[in-house]
Amino acid sequence: MSVLDAFRLDGRTAVVTGGNRGLGRAFATALGEAGATVAILARDTAQSELVLADLAERGISAHAFRADVSRRAEVDAVVEEIVEALGGVDVLVNNAGTCVHRPALEVTDAEWQEVIDTNVTGVWNCCQAFGRHMAERGRGTIVNIGSMSGLVVNRPQWQPAYNASKAAVHQLTKSLAAEWAPLGIRVNALAPGYVKTEMAPVDEPQYRQNWIEDAPMQRYSTPEEIAPSLLYLASDASSFATGTVLVTDGGYTVF
Ligand code: NDP
């Protein structure tokens, strides 16, 4: 057996929340290329159909399901749908997230609530609902997408709710890892730095200095460059890792 076999996911099923675009789409593709049957969970079903067509062209077996992760009833219902359709869930990637870029004194109640509802309650809803299913089976792997913003404060585009939410994701990850290890469930977090997606306007000149030029590697990343790190945490390659926060940020958090 080759060491590379530990990264394979043949015969396994993987759910990616927010799999419609950005990092989630790259994660779904990587998991599928590693052999998993993939379920993308998103709100925009028309966009999901386009992603499914692309995954099918790559020879990946994929399904799409609709849910807003911040709404518990929708999450509970979709877990049942997914388990029935796929026969069980081996890997859950809690990727769906949102960000509000605004100084603290200008953040509205609604903006604060949206970020916390999506990034913290959404991750919690999916962890608990899929976690119950995994506990019944006695196995499962969860990867929560945190951020370097859960570790340091990035300038100058202030985002207090986002930073707080990602620190909460890291701590929730550790808490569940400790509680669920005896149940056969591993829980880890991936904390990327700047990745070019709709969420991060990395090319805008006002952010270049602090976001890119001050960072050791002096560049941002692509979703595809982060995907192998996700694959490590989702597969048996990380079989002795739980409760870890894997930082992939081009060195941004060393300062
Ligand atoms: P995008 O904005 O490109 O994608 C976010 C995805 O999450 C979309 O597919 C969106 O779907 C989905 N989503 C948002 N809210 C919900 C919800 N309530 N229910 C279901 N799906 C939802 O962002 P990224 O790809 O950049 O981010 C993905 C993850 O990576 C996030 O958790 C983000 O915080 C994290 N991250 C991103 C970094 C970056 O620099 N880009 C750096 C570090 C972490 P919809 O079409 O329905 O809106």
TrEMBL record:
GO terms for molecular function: oxidoreductase activity, acting on the CH-OH group of donors, NAD or NADP as acceptor. SMART domains: PKS_KR (SM00822). The keyword Transferase does not apply. SUPFAM superfamilies: NAD(P)-binding Rossmann-fold domains. It comes from the Bacteria. Belongs to the short-chain dehydrogenases/reductases (SDR) family. Residues 12-193 form the Ketoreductase domain. Keywords: Oxidoreductase. It comes from Motilibacter rhizosphaerae. One of its GO terms (biological process) is carbohydrate metabolic process. This is NAD(P)-dependent dehydrogenase (Short-subunit alcohol dehydrogenase family). NCBIfam families: PRK07231.1 (NF005559). The keyword Oxidoreductase applies.
